[in-house]
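Many introductory courses stop at the sequence. We go one step further.
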Amino acid sequence: MRSTTPSARELRDGELLAAIRRIHQDSGGVYGSPRIHAQLRREGERVSRQRVERLMRENAIAEVAPARKLRTTIRNPADERPGDLVGRQFTADGPNRLWVTDLTVITTGEGPLWLASIRDAFSRKVIAWDTGDVADADLVCAVLEYALHSRRPADDAGLIHHADHGCQYTSIKLTNRLVRAGIRASMGTVGDSFDNALAENLWSAIKTECVRHRPERFTTRAEANQAVFEYIDGFYNPRRIQKGLGWRSPDEFEAAHHTGELTEADYTRLAELAQHRRARRAAKREVPPASPHTEGRPEDTVVAGARRSAEGGQHQGSTRHPATRPAPRTDTPPNGYAHPGEP
Protein backbone atom coordinates (compact mmCIF):
# COMPACT_ATOMS: atom_id res chain seq x y z
CA MET A 1 0.00 0.00 0.00
CA ARG A 2 1.28 3.45 -0.90
CA SER A 3 2.33 5.56 2.06
CA THR A 4 0.12 8.58 2.79
CA THR A 5 3.15 10.55 3.87
CA PRO A 6 4.26 12.82 1.01
CA SER A 7 7.75 12.24 -0.29
CA ALA A 8 10.47 14.88 -0.30
CA ARG A 9 9.94 15.38 -4.03
CA GLU A 10 6.21 15.92 -3.56
CA LEU A 11 6.84 18.42 -0.78
CA ARG A 12 9.30 20.26 -3.00
CA ASP A 13 6.78 20.28 -5.86
CA GLY A 14 4.22 21.83 -3.52
CA GLU A 15 6.62 24.62 -2.53
CA LEU A 16 7.51 25.32 -6.15
CA LEU A 17 3.88 25.25 -7.23
CA ALA A 18 3.01 27.88 -4.62
CA ALA A 19 5.84 30.09 -5.89
CA ILE A 20 4.78 29.52 -9.51
CA ARG A 21 1.20 30.50 -8.74
CA ARG A 22 2.40 33.64 -6.93
CA ILE A 23 4.63 34.76 -9.81
CA HIS A 24 1.95 33.97 -12.37
CA GLN A 25 -0.63 35.95 -10.38
CA ASP A 26 1.77 38.89 -9.86
CA SER A 27 2.26 39.10 -13.62
CA GLY A 28 -1.47 39.41 -14.15
CA GLY A 29 -1.58 35.86 -15.52
CA VAL A 30 0.59 36.64 -18.56
CA TYR A 31 3.90 34.95 -17.65
CA GLY A 32 4.66 31.58 -19.22
CA SER A 33 7.24 29.00 -18.17
CA PRO A 34 10.35 30.86 -19.50
CA ARG A 35 9.70 34.01 -17.45
CA ILE A 36 8.44 32.15 -14.40
CA HIS A 37 11.55 29.97 -14.44
CA ALA A 38 13.75 33.05 -14.82
CA GLN A 39 11.98 34.80 -11.94
CA LEU A 40 12.41 31.75 -9.72
CA ARG A 41 16.14 31.80 -10.47
CA ARG A 42 16.24 35.53 -9.67
CA GLU A 43 14.73 34.69 -6.28
CA GLY A 44 17.42 32.08 -5.61
CA GLU A 45 15.42 28.93 -6.39
CA ARG A 46 17.47 26.13 -7.98
CA VAL A 47 14.98 24.44 -10.29
CA SER A 48 15.05 23.18 -13.87
CA ARG A 49 12.98 24.65 -16.68
CA GLN A 50 11.45 21.20 -17.34
CA ARG A 51 10.20 20.93 -13.77
CA VAL A 52 8.53 24.33 -13.96
CA GLU A 53 6.89 23.36 -17.25
CA ARG A 54 5.63 20.09 -15.80
CA LEU A 55 4.08 21.73 -12.74
CA MET A 56 2.43 24.40 -14.87
CA ARG A 57 1.10 21.82 -17.31
CA GLU A 58 -0.26 19.55 -14.58
CA ASN A 59 -2.01 22.46 -12.86
CA ALA A 60 -3.32 24.22 -15.99
CA ILE A 61 -1.22 27.36 -15.45
CA ALA A 62 -0.62 28.98 -18.83
CA GLU A 63 0.29 32.25 -20.48
CA VAL A 64 -1.90 33.98 -23.06
CA ALA A 65 -1.19 33.78 -26.79
CA PRO A 66 -1.21 36.64 -29.31
CA ALA A 67 -3.97 37.07 -31.88
CA ARG A 68 -3.89 38.10 -35.51
CA LYS A 69 -2.61 41.58 -36.27
CA LEU A 70 -5.01 44.31 -37.34
CA ARG A 71 -3.83 46.56 -40.16
CA THR A 72 -3.63 50.18 -38.96
CA THR A 73 -1.01 51.74 -41.23
CA ILE A 74 -2.54 53.99 -43.87
CA ARG A 75 0.07 55.62 -46.08
CA ASN A 76 -0.20 58.74 -48.20
CA PRO A 77 1.52 58.15 -51.57
CA ALA A 78 2.07 61.89 -52.00
CA ASP A 79 4.21 62.25 -48.88
CA GLU A 80 7.99 62.19 -49.16
CA ARG A 81 9.60 59.40 -47.18
CA PRO A 82 13.08 59.08 -45.69
CA GLY A 83 15.27 56.07 -46.32
CA ASP A 84 15.78 53.07 -44.07
CA LEU A 85 18.65 53.76 -41.65
CA VAL A 86 17.99 50.67 -39.52
CA GLY A 87 17.88 47.72 -41.93
CA ARG A 88 16.02 45.58 -39.37
CA GLN A 89 18.96 45.81 -36.95
CA PHE A 90 16.95 46.68 -33.85
CA THR A 91 19.89 46.92 -31.46
CA ALA A 92 21.83 49.88 -30.05
CA ASP A 93 24.97 50.27 -27.97
CA GLY A 94 23.33 52.70 -25.56
CA PRO A 95 20.17 54.65 -24.77
CA ASN A 96 18.90 57.31 -27.17
CA ARG A 97 20.58 55.84 -30.24
CA LEU A 98 17.50 54.29 -31.85
CA TRP A 99 13.87 55.04 -31.10
CA VAL A 100 11.19 52.90 -32.72
CA THR A 101 7.64 54.23 -32.96
CA ASP A 102 4.22 53.14 -34.19
CA LEU A 103 0.52 53.39 -33.39
CA THR A 104 -2.28 50.88 -32.94
CA VAL A 105 -5.98 50.86 -32.08
CA ILE A 106 -7.85 49.47 -29.08
CA THR A 107 -11.58 48.79 -29.41
CA THR A 108 -13.89 50.22 -26.72
CA GLY A 109 -17.61 50.66 -26.24
CA GLU A 110 -17.24 54.36 -27.07
CA GLY A 111 -15.31 53.72 -30.26
CA PRO A 112 -11.63 53.28 -31.18
CA LEU A 113 -8.86 54.45 -28.86
CA TRP A 114 -5.60 55.08 -30.73
CA LEU A 115 -2.36 54.36 -28.90
CA ALA A 116 1.02 55.67 -30.06
CA SER A 117 4.36 54.96 -28.42
CA ILE A 118 8.12 55.31 -28.73
CA ARG A 119 10.40 52.49 -27.62
CA ASP A 120 14.16 52.66 -27.05
CA ALA A 121 15.89 49.83 -28.92
CA PHE A 122 18.67 49.58 -26.32
CA SER A 123 16.57 48.67 -23.29
CA ARG A 124 13.22 47.93 -25.01
CA LYS A 125 11.70 50.52 -22.66
CA VAL A 126 8.55 52.40 -23.65
CA ILE A 127 9.91 55.90 -23.12
CA ALA A 128 6.73 57.74 -24.18
CA TRP A 129 3.15 56.95 -25.11
CA ASP A 130 -0.19 58.71 -25.52
CA THR A 131 -3.73 57.94 -26.61
CA GLY A 132 -6.35 59.81 -28.60
CA ASP A 133 -9.72 59.51 -30.28
CA VAL A 134 -8.17 59.92 -33.73
CA ALA A 135 -4.89 58.81 -35.29
CA ASP A 136 -3.41 62.05 -36.55
CA ALA A 137 -0.10 63.90 -36.63
CA ASP A 138 -0.93 65.66 -33.35
CA LEU A 139 -0.97 62.32 -31.53
CA VAL A 140 2.43 61.13 -32.76
CA CYS A 141 3.93 64.60 -32.24
CA ALA A 142 2.68 64.63 -28.64
CA VAL A 143 4.41 61.31 -28.02
CA LEU A 144 7.63 62.68 -29.50
CA GLU A 145 7.43 65.72 -27.21
CA TYR A 146 7.02 63.46 -24.19
CA ALA A 147 10.06 61.45 -25.25
CA LEU A 148 12.18 64.55 -25.80
CA HIS A 149 11.19 65.94 -22.42
CA SER A 150 11.89 62.73 -20.49
CA ARG A 151 15.09 61.65 -22.27
CA ARG A 152 16.62 64.97 -23.42
CA PRO A 153 18.76 63.42 -26.21
CA ALA A 154 21.63 65.37 -27.77
CA ASP A 155 20.77 67.23 -30.98
CA ASP A 156 23.87 65.96 -32.80
CA ALA A 157 22.04 63.67 -35.27
CA GLY A 158 23.15 60.65 -33.25
CA LEU A 159 19.57 59.51 -32.65
CA ILE A 160 17.42 57.71 -35.24
CA HIS A 161 13.62 57.88 -35.16
CA HIS A 162 12.31 54.81 -37.02
CA ALA A 163 8.66 54.42 -38.08
CA ASP A 164 6.48 52.78 -40.70
CA HIS A 165 4.84 54.50 -43.68
CA GLY A 166 1.74 55.74 -41.89
CA CYS A 167 0.69 59.19 -43.04
CA GLN A 168 1.09 60.48 -39.47
CA TYR A 169 4.83 59.73 -39.60
CA THR A 170 5.35 61.25 -43.04
CA SER A 171 3.50 64.44 -42.09
CA ILE A 172 5.23 67.80 -42.42
CA LYS A 173 4.49 68.57 -38.77
CA LEU A 174 6.40 65.55 -37.44
CA THR A 175 9.17 65.82 -40.03
CA ASN A 176 9.89 69.44 -39.12
CA ARG A 177 9.94 68.63 -35.40
CA LEU A 178 12.49 65.89 -35.94
CA VAL A 179 14.70 68.26 -37.90
CA ARG A 180 14.52 70.91 -35.17
CA ALA A 181 15.43 68.30 -32.54
CA GLY A 182 18.43 67.07 -34.55
CA ILE A 183 16.97 63.57 -34.97
CA ARG A 184 17.34 61.54 -38.16
CA ALA A 185 14.13 60.07 -39.57
CA SER A 186 14.06 56.48 -40.87
CA MET A 187 11.45 54.26 -42.51
CA GLY A 188 11.41 50.73 -43.87
CA THR A 189 9.71 49.41 -46.96
CA VAL A 190 5.98 49.61 -47.65
CA GLY A 191 3.66 46.98 -46.18
CA ASP A 192 6.33 44.99 -44.35
CA SER A 193 5.88 44.62 -40.59
CA PHE A 194 9.35 43.10 -40.28
CA ASP A 195 10.86 46.52 -41.02
CA ASN A 196 9.27 47.83 -37.82
CA ALA A 197 9.30 44.60 -35.85
CA LEU A 198 10.36 46.08 -32.51
CA ALA A 199 7.28 48.30 -32.45
CA GLU A 200 5.03 45.47 -33.65
CA ASN A 201 6.39 43.33 -30.84
CA LEU A 202 5.17 45.85 -28.28
CA TRP A 203 1.66 45.83 -29.75
CA SER A 204 1.66 42.05 -29.60
CA ALA A 205 2.49 42.16 -25.90
CA ILE A 206 -0.06 44.87 -25.08
CA LYS A 207 -2.88 43.27 -27.07
CA THR A 208 -2.15 39.85 -25.61
CA GLU A 209 -1.39 40.68 -21.98
CA CYS A 210 -3.43 43.85 -21.41
CA VAL A 211 -6.36 43.91 -23.85
CA ARG A 212 -7.28 40.31 -24.73
CA HIS A 213 -6.46 39.10 -21.23
CA ARG A 214 -9.54 40.91 -19.95
CA PRO A 215 -12.83 38.96 -19.72
CA GLU A 216 -14.79 41.80 -21.36
CA ARG A 217 -14.20 44.60 -23.83
CA PHE A 218 -13.39 48.07 -22.46
CA THR A 219 -16.58 50.05 -21.90
CA THR A 220 -15.05 53.52 -22.25
CA ARG A 221 -11.89 55.06 -23.67
CA ALA A 222 -10.95 56.24 -20.19
CA GLU A 223 -11.10 52.66 -18.93
CA ALA A 224 -8.84 51.48 -21.73
CA ASN A 225 -6.43 54.37 -21.15
CA GLN A 226 -6.17 53.48 -17.45
CA ALA A 227 -5.48 49.83 -18.28
CA VAL A 228 -2.71 50.83 -20.71
CA PHE A 229 -1.20 53.12 -18.06
CA GLU A 230 -1.19 50.34 -15.47
CA TYR A 231 0.32 47.89 -17.93
CA ILE A 232 3.11 50.06 -19.41
CA ASP A 233 4.10 52.19 -16.41
CA GLY A 234 3.15 49.73 -13.70
CA PHE A 235 4.23 46.42 -15.21
CA TYR A 236 6.00 46.45 -18.58
CA ASN A 237 8.75 48.99 -17.88
CA PRO A 238 9.50 48.32 -14.20
CA ARG A 239 8.68 44.61 -13.78
CA ARG A 240 8.27 42.60 -16.99
CA ILE A 241 11.55 40.69 -17.40
CA GLN A 242 12.92 39.89 -20.87
CA LYS A 243 15.35 37.25 -22.02
CA GLY A 244 17.32 39.64 -24.24
CA LEU A 245 17.95 41.88 -21.24
CA GLY A 246 19.40 39.05 -19.15
CA TRP A 247 16.00 38.45 -17.53
CA ARG A 248 15.79 42.05 -16.37
CA SER A 249 13.01 44.55 -16.87
CA PRO A 250 13.69 47.58 -19.11
CA ASP A 251 14.02 49.86 -16.08
CA GLU A 252 16.44 47.44 -14.41
CA PHE A 253 18.50 47.15 -17.58
CA GLU A 254 18.85 50.90 -17.99
CA ALA A 255 19.69 51.32 -14.32
CA ALA A 256 22.41 48.69 -14.63
CA HIS A 257 23.77 50.49 -17.69
CA HIS A 258 23.93 53.86 -15.93
CA THR A 259 25.65 52.39 -12.86
CA GLY A 260 28.17 50.45 -14.95
CA GLU A 261 26.91 47.04 -13.81
CA LEU A 262 26.41 45.65 -17.32
CA THR A 263 29.21 43.43 -18.62
CA GLU A 264 30.44 42.87 -22.15
CA ALA A 265 28.44 39.64 -22.15
CA ASP A 266 25.22 41.64 -21.63
CA TYR A 267 25.87 43.79 -24.69
CA THR A 268 26.98 40.79 -26.75
CA ARG A 269 23.86 38.84 -25.82
CA LEU A 270 21.61 41.55 -27.26
CA ALA A 271 23.30 41.35 -30.64
CA GLU A 272 23.45 37.54 -30.65
CA LEU A 273 19.78 37.11 -29.77
CA ALA A 274 18.75 39.60 -32.43
CA GLN A 275 20.79 37.71 -35.02
CA HIS A 276 19.36 34.39 -33.84
CA ARG A 277 15.79 35.66 -34.17
CA ARG A 278 16.42 36.97 -37.66
CA ALA A 279 17.93 33.68 -38.84
CA ARG A 280 15.32 31.49 -37.17
CA ARG A 281 12.30 33.35 -38.46
CA ALA A 282 13.75 33.88 -41.89
CA ALA A 283 13.98 30.09 -42.16
CA LYS A 284 10.36 29.75 -41.03
CA ARG A 285 9.18 32.09 -43.76
CA GLU A 286 10.66 29.92 -46.51
CA VAL A 287 7.92 27.93 -48.25
CA PRO A 288 8.84 24.22 -48.47
CA PRO A 289 8.87 22.44 -51.83
CA ALA A 290 5.75 20.58 -52.91
CA SER A 291 5.49 16.96 -51.79
CA PRO A 292 3.64 14.14 -53.59
CA HIS A 293 0.79 14.60 -51.12
CA THR A 294 0.35 18.30 -51.95
CA GLU A 295 1.32 18.35 -55.62
CA GLY A 296 -1.12 20.45 -57.59
CA ARG A 297 -2.49 22.04 -54.41
CA PRO A 298 -0.26 25.03 -53.59
CA GLU A 299 -2.50 26.19 -50.79
CA ASP A 300 -1.89 22.90 -48.97
CA THR A 301 1.85 23.38 -49.38
CA VAL A 302 1.70 26.76 -47.65
CA VAL A 303 -0.48 25.44 -44.83
CA ALA A 304 1.80 22.44 -44.35
CA GLY A 305 4.82 24.72 -44.22
CA ALA A 306 3.14 26.96 -41.66
CA ARG A 307 2.24 23.91 -39.57
CA ARG A 308 5.82 22.59 -39.64
CA SER A 309 7.14 26.04 -38.71
CA ALA A 310 4.77 26.29 -35.76
CA GLU A 311 5.70 22.81 -34.55
CA GLY A 312 9.40 23.49 -34.94
CA GLY A 313 9.17 26.76 -33.01
CA GLN A 314 7.11 25.38 -30.10
CA HIS A 315 9.26 24.39 -27.13
CA GLN A 316 8.58 20.89 -25.91
CA GLY A 317 6.39 21.07 -22.88
CA SER A 318 5.49 24.71 -23.48
CA THR A 319 2.44 26.05 -21.67
CA ARG A 320 1.43 28.54 -24.37
CA HIS A 321 -2.18 28.31 -25.50
CA PRO A 322 -2.51 27.31 -29.17
CA ALA A 323 -3.21 30.21 -31.53
CA THR A 324 -4.06 30.39 -35.20
CA ARG A 325 -1.38 32.22 -37.18
CA PRO A 326 -1.44 33.37 -40.81
CA ALA A 327 0.57 31.43 -43.38
CA PRO A 328 4.07 32.85 -44.01
CA ARG A 329 4.44 35.43 -46.76
CA THR A 330 6.30 34.21 -49.80
CA ASP A 331 7.33 37.68 -50.97
CA THR A 332 9.22 38.67 -47.81
CA PRO A 333 13.03 38.88 -48.17
CA PRO A 334 14.66 35.87 -46.51
CA ASN A 335 17.22 37.95 -44.62
CA GLY A 336 14.77 40.15 -42.76
CA TYR A 337 13.98 40.67 -39.14
CA ALA A 338 11.16 38.38 -38.12
CA HIS A 339 7.78 39.29 -36.74
CA PRO A 340 8.02 39.70 -33.00
CA GLY A 341 7.55 36.91 -30.59
CA GLU A 342 9.84 37.24 -27.57
CA PRO A 343 10.94 40.75 -26.98
